[in-house]
């Protein structure tokens, strides 16, 4: 096998080990995560999306007259699905010119007495400026939900992200770091808010044997096949198929089922999570070292910008290294040539929310909210996998290819 045939996964998810799958042991993943995050308690959900729905329903009960939720125009389409599912009206906030965070002026322009919540979002492990969003939200009495789906392990001022707003959520989906195949975590700075979230969970989330069986089988399959020897069969081959049809939405994994399952997270998957969590800090530490070394090499290429944290005093995590290319034509040409090269290139999301035909109907009037800068980000971003499986030799090939693309410009 030549190095070119090894397929790198698109993110540095924490690989599972066989002994993680043992059927017995400590199932208190909530306690383990609370200790790991340095908080008194957390609430477990079956996905980040389900966690967001629990958060939104809780806030709806606290402020029933407010019906709008402000999210970045460039974020996971599941966020729009969750907001719509709760019967709330989404509003799209444009991004800043110089960071992947919401633009503060655009945010102030959207906030009103109608605003239930704002979702500053830590995309790609980079830390958003939640203090600023909170300051803006407080002026109109709106809540702040930190979407830290992609940032379990990121810190700001020495504390976990997710605790500067009123509610924080993390995802344990495949590829986002720690995984129970699908899973979600809710945190809250304030004990009364955590209790309110727990009450909503108890009133709305049920056990589902069928979903637990399905997710357990998927987690087993993932543990068995998320390995260098089988990565090409389970990730590379389907990716090439999507790309052969020019279906970038499927290639990027942006094609979500319309139904959002809500159920509890079963004991066996919690046990797997407890055992894998013991390795997460070391995993992110090693990933950070690799990312800092490789970021410096990437940043040295003319025209290529490595995306950094928006917040000061931040220590993000590095599932990927996000790059901004000089223009869309160059980004698209790079992806056409090398998305399937096995280097783990991908797009965080293909479009801003209103540009997906299948999700635009969820937006209602918000499909007309200004998103110029967010669209520019969507068109120029590339995520380079920070998986340890991307060897130095493969990374050198990637650097050379990037250099050729920028020189051609
Ligand atoms: C993945 C993701 C979600 C949803 O989390 P799931 O666990 O996949 O349901 C929400 N927000 C962002 C920014 C995400 O990347």
UniProtKB/TrEMBL annotation:
Which residues are named in the active-site annotation? 176
State the name under which the record lists this protein.
Answer: Nucleotide sugar aminotransferase
Q: Which Pfam families match?
A: DegT_DnrJ_EryC1 (PF01041)
Provide one Gene Ontology biological process annotation. Answer: polysaccharide biosynthetic process
Under the GO molecular function aspect, what terms does this record hold?
Answer: pyridoxal phosphate binding; transaminase activity
Residues annotated as carrying N6-(pyridoxal phosphate)lysine in the record are 176
Is Transferase set as a keyword in this record? yes
Record family assignment: Belongs to the DegT/DnrJ/EryC1 family.
The keyword Transferase is assigned to this record = yes
Supply the Gene3D superfamilies for this chain. Answer: Type I PLP-dependent aspartate aminotransferase-like (Major domain)
Q: Which UniProt keywords apply?
A: Aminotransferase, Pyridoxal phosphate, Transferase
């Amino acid at each position: 096998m030549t190095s070119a045939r090894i397929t790198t996964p698109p993110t540095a998810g924490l690989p599972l080990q066989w002994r993680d799958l043992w059927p017995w042991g400590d199932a208190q993943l909530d306690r383990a995560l609370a200790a790991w995050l340095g908080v008194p308690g957390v609430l477990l959900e079956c996905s980040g999306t389900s966690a967001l729905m629990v958060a939104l329903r809780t806030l709806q009960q606290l402020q029933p007259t407010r019906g709008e939720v402000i999210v970045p125009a460039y974020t996971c389409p599941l966020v729009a699905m969750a907001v719509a599912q709760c019967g709330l009206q989404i509003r799209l906030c444009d991004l800043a010119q110089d960071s992947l965070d919401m633009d503060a002026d655009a945010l102030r322009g959207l906030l009103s007495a109608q605003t239930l919540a704002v979702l500053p979002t830590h995309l790609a492990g980079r830390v958003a400026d939640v203090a600023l969003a909170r300051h803006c939200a407080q002026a109109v009495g709106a809540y702040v939900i930190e979407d830290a789906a992609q940032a379990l392990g990121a810190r700001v001022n020495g504390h976990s992200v997710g605790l500067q707003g009123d509610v924080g959520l993390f995802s344990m989906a495949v590829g986002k770091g720690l995984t129970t195949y699908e899973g979600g975590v809710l945190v809250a700075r304030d004990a009364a808010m955590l209790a309110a979230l727990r009450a909503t969970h108890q009133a709305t989330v049920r056990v589902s044997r069928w979903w637990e069986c399905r997710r357990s089988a998927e987690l087993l399959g993932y543990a068995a096949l998320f390995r260098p020897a089988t990565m090409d069969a389970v990730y590379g081959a389907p990716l090439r198929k999507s790309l052969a049809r020019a279906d970038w939405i499927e290639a990027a994994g942006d094609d979500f089922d319309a139904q959002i399952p809500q159920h509890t997270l079963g004991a066996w998957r919690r046990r797997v999570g407890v055992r894998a969590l013991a390795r997460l800090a070391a995993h992110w530490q090693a990933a950070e070292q690799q990312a800092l070394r490789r970021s410096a090499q990437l940043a040295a290429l003319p025209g290529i910008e490595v995306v950094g944290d928006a917040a000061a005093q931040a220590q993000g995590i590095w599932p990927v290294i996000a790059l901004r290319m000089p223009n869309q034509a160059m980004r698209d040409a790079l992806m056409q040539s090398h998305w399937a090269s096995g280097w783990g290139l991908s797009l965080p999301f293909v479009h801003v929310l209103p540009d997906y035909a299948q999700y635009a109907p969820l937006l209602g009037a918000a499909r007309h909210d200004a998103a110029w800068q967010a669209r520019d980000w969507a068109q120029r971003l590339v995520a380079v996998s920070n998986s340890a499986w991307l060897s130095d030799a493969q990374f050198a090939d990637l650097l050379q290819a990037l250099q050729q693309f920028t020189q051609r410009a």
